[in-house]
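Researcher: Re-running this chain for the archive, since the previous output was lost when a drive failed. Same request as before.
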Amino acid sequence: MYTSEPKKLALIRIYQILNKETDIDHPLTHDEIVKKLQSEYELNIERKAIGRNISLLNEAGYDIVTTKKGSYLAERTFEDVELRMLIDGILAGKHIGTKHSADLIDKLCGLSNKYFKTHVKYVYRIGDWDKTDNKDLFYTMEVVDEAITEGKQVYFEYNKYGADKKLHRSSRVTASPYQMILHNQRYYLMAYNDYYKQMKYYRLDRITKIEKKEIAQVPIRTIEGFENGIDYNRFSCQMPYMFADEPQPVTFRAEPWAIDQVVDWFGKNIDIQPEKDKFIISVKTSLHAMEFWAMQYLNAVEILTPTTLREKVKENLCWATEKYNQ
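Model: Regenerated structure tokens:
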């Protein structure tokens, strides 16, 4: 129960009631609004003052519709279907932990009225989704963003999952951060590791105990392959997995039924040429990433060039055949 409020707050309280309680299917009469002002805010105003305040809100740009059935807020910053899409994105994001996912979804639900959450509650049960155990993700992102803005290096522990399904430290890293990249529903930190003298891509949800160092980052244009800065095209669908090696031309033969999957992984900026009952496809991508991808689609694709990649896949097949024949 709120303590009694001055009447000058009536305008904002009426808007809050309309925002929380109404839509086209759930209008409120002016008498109902008066009762809610009394019960929720101990605000006592006359019924005719409701209409005046709603007119003021309309003049201020709020789309409030009044009919014989009552008044309702007709337009919001986000439509319900847009909120559903944002919620689905949070649920699908494995890099967002369970608690953060629940908090974000509650905030998104708060952008609609009270009826919206009842419509989407059956869509999600956060615990049923495969989420990271790392509770430091948002803090990590804040530190990284600050370091990038200030041009500083970062120090952190990098972790991997063990057989106990828990994260364990695998290394300590000092690196120059340049960008956070969302790729295949996971966030990566693009950073130059001075120890290995190469650009690396670190899963943000695998980083813990991060801190900003008071050491200037290595200028990105001094790094081989990044003389012109970051080429964001390389982070499009051209890279099925995040590897640091320079993208190179790759051609492969694909079954017709696999074209849909090829476009899903590599996007539309690829060359597809028919060859009898199959297709020859040319892409530019990481050879390391392509090796793993080709193994995933063994029954659908055949690497043609470069020869080194083709031979590597053949070696993998020989090892796999030997293993399964034992």
